[in-house]
Amino acid sequence: MRAKTMLRSYGGELFKLRKRPAVWVVLGVWLVLMLVFTYVFPYLGYRSAKTPALGRGLLGELLPANIPGQGLTGYPVWGGALIVVLGALALGSEYGWGTMKTMLTNRPGRLTVFTAQVAALFTVLAALVIVAFACNGLASFLITNSAHANLAAPSLGALVRSMLAGWLILCMWCLFGVTLAVLLRGTAMSIGLGLVWVLAVENLIRATASLVPALGTFQKGLPGVNAGSLVAALGGKGAASSGTGIAPIVGGTQALLVVIFYFGLFGMVGALIVRRRDVQ
What we know:
globular, mainly alpha
């Protein structure tokens, strides 16, 4: 009975996400930015490179063999920021519309509702990552074909690892937005604070870490820093040169463990707030 209830709740949450125009807008913008910053701009840089060595270096990152690393370039910073918006919209709107109170009154328990909402978001993010890597493959093929370069495909294992890592990073940021939404009971403030943290606070800490030793240690535990280090460990090469925030500040193993830690932390905090606090 409980499993059937969960499945019904999950199906309902997927239906809501599918019918919300804002969700499609966020996902569409995410995909466009991913292609523009990951392949279009680097390709334009390759075409306008002043030296053959620079051109070869830029083209090398765009070849199919490098899709596992290049495809993850934007996930830690701007990609994560948009997914924070998605998580905040998905749950914060329920408070703004007053539908959260109705769901918790007429539907299953609070944790069942929250789990179904989060599971539906994770499913959407899994589909997004699959579509994104398919778009990466198409863009890489077109660029490689036009440059008459090597069309060697990436290994299946590397591709799967990168897709799983990308999904985990996006889920972590989504849970961050979800937790802000249930904590602040709305969308505007949760979106604002989430974007400020991802795009401003972490970048400022990274920029000043070399000046203040304590900040240098502190930044090694930040979610964005570890997400960027995880991407760098998987072959992301655009970090240092493009300002995308994926410089390898910590090792790949630590980065993975810290991302998993924040994934669990944000999920538990959000569930605890939903379970224990009254909905007003």
